[in-house]
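Table 4 source record.
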Amino acid sequence: MIQRKRRRAEGIPLSAMGDIAFLLMIFYMATTLVTDQKPREVDSPRLDDAANMSSPYPLVIYVDREMAQQGKAYFFNQATPLDDLPAMVQERAALAPAAVRVYLTIERGLPYQHMNAVIQALREAGVKNLVITTRPEEGR
């Protein structure tokens, strides 16, 4: 039996190239936005504006279970009654060079009513930036 040698293809098959080009053309037409809108000028806030910056010295308030039952919070190295807390926070915030951040550290497992009382006192003081963190319960 005589075996014939296969002929090598002389050239690159271009039949699939037309299909690929057609699919790419459809893809680009489908994803391109055709619009006549012009970009708008937007006033962005300035970074050096004092109202947009926050103070580098945050105010830290700490409340644990014992202090909460007494109606107090630990602020600036002293136990402060919750009724006096708004005035003290306002006084310290007035000394800050920029907007004040307040960190409220609460003992984990503290009943919500005590935490809410402190948050309401801070709201009365006009605090807008409040970060709430927790600490583990004592004895764990």
